[in-house]
């Protein structure tokens, strides 16, 4: 038995896989005691803890701790003269013409940013030895201030951590109770501000993250779970819980990336290697781009970036995703200018959408899908909730009165605005990265992905939508398909030329040796590991880099790949020397997996055997169409359905628009070809 759980902002999902057979459940998330939702999901599934051989878990605990400011009081120790790096930040702004822009306030106030005497140069050579004479007094001050965590970030420690290591050891000796993390444990890449901020945020979330993971592990052990849990990391890999506690900031996007890597895995299974992956949950919509079967990993992640704030950079490997505050629970509201808006505020699971009947007053995207007939009122939330249809109608009528439109027209407006927001997110991950969305298929999942996918694809000219099996809990499914993973990013400045290639290979071998040792501490042998080599490179004299994969170690091949990536990102290439800035080793520890079993094959293309009835659906305002309903679990490989159609399952609903055609693949995935009737006409 293999089990994976994903705690989202609205729902907690659980998927369990045994002998190729997948089952899933969905329950309400239970803030602030998120582990209770997980335990509720296991109880609902009926899974016996003693039967579980593999347990993976993804959570929003780190990102929630940051955005809700629920971390601990944190101090920063840094090189003398550099206490204000966090305050100075960067001069770049999201919008240079926005006069409301303000630099984001540091997580550590100035009186808790203290200095020590030491100095290294950019080569890591000691200029001023570390002086620890003032440390006892500094720690006394921090104790009086009620500090619970200390971040250490010394100048140029990325290339020589010796002073950080000595300072950290001294703090542990003088104050063993305080949580301490140093920048070299978080990032070995240059950029002082980004490294300082990342270390501070990691210290800020370390105690609550450890408490959460310890509490979760204790509950699971008490229930009879034998194997240690794996935790989903932002880089698209999983790690044992004890290793994850040592680097808490690496869990910042622990939940969302599971679905993105699941899309990659399912794409490989069915031979689809160019995908736009879209996850629409209850609170947010997330998307990423998969090109030639690969997901991009970024080391330049930012939280809380808006038009009036540059946000907070986090220098940890994160799957390159775009996330917006639009999901099934996103609230419809009217702004000060009298315009209809949707999100980013969410109804969550409590009170939830108006349809839940738990006291919600403002209509949501889910309510709009229900009111226009897309969601079945007789099988709402898998039949577990009897929706308050009358309450939904009143909610849209109240808001519609303010705009002078009917309730149904307002509901369609909510869907159109939500779709427009999601289209913009898909453009950010594709067009803004130098890719044409028409060259990709759209794989949509999450509770709301299948409801909106066909409309989004039609807007962007995407020819095909894929709804994978168990789309409503797909992030949890994705965790079952992943290997353990560690990323090693290290600044290593050198020319990208023939003379420097042997040195490049030598340093990568050193990083591999470090990875072997660290995986061994988790009980994973050398023969289970595989490695990928990447470099961050630039033209000499440039500021920023592009990532290049070292598939072959011939210099001409590496240089051509760099030129191509640079041209894709910036539209031009130059005849200039190139230099390496960072080395990026990706180390995978292969975890045994259960392959997905194919479903049954139909002896005819007709899907009438899966048809369960029909109902009126409004795809356009005031134009209801009698639409066929199908049970997804009854669909077989080879069946075809011409839109309009609604495909229903326990955790989501697929909307096939008029003019679209659906086909079922070997594993039960739905392939929807967009506007095929228009193309034929």
From TrEMBL:
GO terms for biological process: glutathione metabolic process. InterPro entries: ACX-like_C, ATPase_NBD, Hydant_A_N, Hydantoinase_A, Oxoprolinase-like. It comes from the Bacteria. Residues 2-173 form the Hydantoinase/oxoprolinase N-terminal domain. One of its GO terms (cellular component) is cytosol. Residues 504-672 form the Acetophenone carboxylase-like C-terminal domain. Transmembrane segments: none annotated. GO terms for molecular function: 5-oxoprolinase (ATP-hydrolyzing) activity. Residues 195-486 form the Hydantoinase A/oxoprolinase domain. PANTHER family: 5-OXOPROLINASE RELATED (PTHR11365), HYPOTHETICAL 5-OXOPROLINASE (EUROFUNG)-RELATED (PTHR11365:SF23). This is Hydantoinase/oxoprolinase family protein. It comes from Pseudomonas vancouverensis.
